[in-house]
Amino acid sequence: MVHFISGHPMVLDCKVFEHNQEKVFWKRPEWDQDPRVYTEVLLDKEDGDESYKILRLTIDQPDDRDSGMYFCMVEDNKDEAVVMADSTSRRPYRIHTASGDEIFSASEKSLTLKCPVEGTPHPEVFWQRGDDVLEPSTKYTFQDDGDVKSAHLEISEPKNADFGEYMCTAENSLGKVDVTFNVVNATLAQIPGAKSGANSGQGDPDAAQAIYQSQTQLLLFHILVTIPMALLHLL
């Protein structure tokens, strides 16, 4: 998987063998209906004692349309064969970070992080942990909030390795904002607002989570119409 940032060059490399280097090219089925501007360059590479060539595909100004599968093809007697395939997905570019909620987990079941987004056009939401863009898996499940896709992130059976910072990036055509969440392991006695009881010191397995209910909003999306266009381009 190759991640790219909108507006920054996207690069894919395909290893080429000498006997077919003149017959190799990049292909993407969507280009038949939606041609894109790109370049292909044959470059020399070295890896230890091995020397070879790569066919480099570059799209200088990628956007949403450039997410998906790409195929490096070789043509032999007018037949085409796939040399390699790679997929791409758009990755958010961090601008600035707003303070988000702190999530306290006292459960072995799951917890849900909710990206507090509103906006017109409806923003697209990415979730990250560190530099990794999170994808759906047995650990992570994404849920929509009305018309906002992937606004909620559910973490299944949180363990020690799952605690720490998570970031949601909300983006629409006019701008983007990041919100960070800190997921903390705690017993019920340590969770603000949690009910106390005989088992509070040990934690309550039925309490999936307790959240500081802040009113964090991505104000960027509320005031988009008042932001000068020049500033939006900088964002």
Can you walk through the features of this model?
This is Lachesin. Keywords: Disulfide bond, Immunoglobulin domain, Repeat, Signal. There is one protein chain. With 235 residues, this protein is mainly beta. It folds into 2 domains: 2-90, Immunoglobulins (Immunoglobulin-like, Sandwich), CATH 2.60.40.10; 97-234, Immunoglobulins (Immunoglobulin-like, Sandwich), CATH 2.60.40. The chain has 2 helices and 16 strands. It has helices at 219-222, 229-234; strands at residues 2-4, 10-16, 24-27, 39-47, 50-59, 68-76, 79-90, 97-105, 110-114, 124-129, 132-133, 140-145, 148-156, 164-172, 175-185, 210-211. A 6-stranded mixed beta sheet has the order 11-10-14-15-8-16, with no helix packed on it. The longest helix has 6 residues, at 229-234. The radius of gyration is 23 Å and the shape is elongated. The model is unreliable at 94-98 and 196-235 (pLDDT under 50).
Concise overview:
With 235 residues, the chain is mainly β. The chain folds into two domains: 2-90, Immunoglobulins (Immunoglobulin-like); 97-234, Sandwich (Immunoglobulin-like).
Which helices and strands, and how do they pair?
Elements: E1 2-4, E2 10-16, E3 24-27, E4 39-47, E5 50-59, E6 68-76, E7 79-90, E8 97-105, E9 110-114, E10 124-129, E11 132-133, E12 140-145, E13 148-156, E14 164-172, E15 175-185, E16 210-211, H1 219-222, H2 229-234
Parallel strand pairs: 1-7, 8-15
Antiparallel strand pairs: 2-5, 3-6, 4-5, 6-7, 8-16, 9-13, 10-11, 10-14, 12-13, 14-15
Protein name: Lachesin
Domain Ig-like: 1-89, 92-180
InterPro entries: Ig-like_dom, Ig-like_dom_sf, Ig-like_fold, Ig_I-set, Ig_sub, Ig_sub2, Neural/epithelial_adhesion
